[in-house]
Description:
alpha/beta, 35% helix, eight-stranded parallel sheet
Amino acid sequence: MHADLLVANSPLILTMNQRDGDTLGPLRGGAIAVTKGRISWVGDAADAPPASEVIDASGTVVVPALVDCHTHTVWAGSRASEFERRLTGESYTAILEEGGGILSTVRATRAADEATLTSTAAHRLAAMRARGVLTVEIKSGYGLDVETEVRMLRAALAAGRSADVDVIATFLGAHAIPAEHRADRERYVRHVIDEQLPAMKGLATAIDVYVDRGAFTLDEGRRILEAGRAAGLAVKVHAEQVAYTGIAEVAANLGALSCDHLERIDGAGIAAMARAGTVAVLAPGAMLYMHDMAPPIAAMRAAGVRFAVATDLNPGSSPVHDLWTCATLACVTMGLTVAEALRGITVEGARALGLDDRGVIAVGSRADLVLVEPPAGEPYAASSLVQHVGGARIRRVLRAGVN
Ligand SMILES: [Zn+2]
C-alpha cells in the first residue's frame, strides 16, 4: 500500500474512535495515512505505509475537523444597537414589541440580494474554517416567505462552496410568525407546509421548527415536522428552551436526528430521546447571552443521551462564531466532561446531522483533520484543548487531505 499523504510525528491523535474504554480514542506515537481524500490507515507510526508526502504534525494534537451542527449563519443587518440597549436594562420583549429582535433581521434579510447574503455568510464561514470547522449546518428562517427562504439556503450553499466548507442546509420556515401573518397564525402554518416546504426540494436536507412560548405551539410544530418528514427531510427541533412544551418527546418519537437547546426538557422527553438515539445539541452561547440555566445534563447522561455542542451562531441570542469556546462553555457552564465536549464538536456533531463519514479518525472517513497546538506550557492532552478560552492555536486545517 502506498498512501498519498502521511500525517506523522504528532505526540497525540484524538481519533474519537473509542479504544480501551476511552471515548476520545487517544493514540500516542501514531500516524494517519490518507489516500484519495479518505483516511486509509491509522496506527503506530512504526508501521506506517510509505507515502508521497509527509505532513509534520510535531508539536500538535491532531483531531478530526470540527462540525458545527446548529447555526443561523446567513442573515443581513445588525443587532448591535439592540445588544447595547439590552445591556442598559431594556427587555427583549419590549424590543421585540417595537419590531426589533428577530423581526428586524427578517426585514433586513428580505431586503438583501443573494450575492450580499452569500458574501457575508462566506466571510463568517471563513472565520470558522480558520478555527478548524469544516462542516457547518445553516438554517433558513429569516425569510419567512417562499422567495427569501429559498434565497437564504441558496446563499448558504454558495457560501460553503466559496469558503471551502461543507454546508448542510436546514429549512426553518417555522422560526417566527412574520408580521403580515400575525392576525392568522394558522394561515402561516399552512403557508410553511403547502408553499415553503415544496420549494425546499434539492436545497434542504432537514426541517426544523422553533416550538416555544411566543413561537410555534406543540401541535403546530408536530404538523410541520410531520410534513417535512413526509417530504423526505430529516427532523431537528429547537426544543424546551424558554418554556417546556413537550416537543422534544414528540420530535424524538418522529425519529429526530437532534433536539436542540433543552434547558427545560423533562424525564419523558429524555427517555424518548434515549430510545430514538436522538442527539442533544447544546448551545452554551445562547444560554450565556440569555442568562439561562443549564439543561439537565446529568439526567440526560444517565439515560444514555449523547451530546453535541454547537455555536447556534445568530445575530441576536448567540452571536458566537467560535466552536472551541462553546466546547469550553459546555464544560464550565453546563458540566460536560472534556471528552463529551470534544466529541460534541466532532463525531456527535456529525451524528446530529446524520453524517457518519466525518468527525472521527478512522479508515474510510474523510481526511478532514486539524492540527492544534495547545496553549504554551500545557501538555499534549485533551484537556489542554478545552481548558483555556482562545488558548489553543490552529496550526493547519486539512480538508479531504488537502491544505
Ligand atoms: Zn437556533
